Amino acid sequence: MHSADIHLTLHHLRAGDLRAEAAQTVSPVPREPIRARVGWILVDLGLHLVRRPAGHDAAGALPA
Known about the structure:
Elements: H1 3-24, H2 34-50
């Protein structure tokens, strides 16, 4: 058997092993889509910025 054929055969065997292993694992808890999560993070950031006390600049220091 040619070395490329052996490599391909080993590849197919390993791929089958990995597929069988993946089929046995428990799927993770479904999460919100990334778009929704990023949206809520931005809302939280916006609320944090709105709640900042008046008179503070972006660095959080009092104006001179």
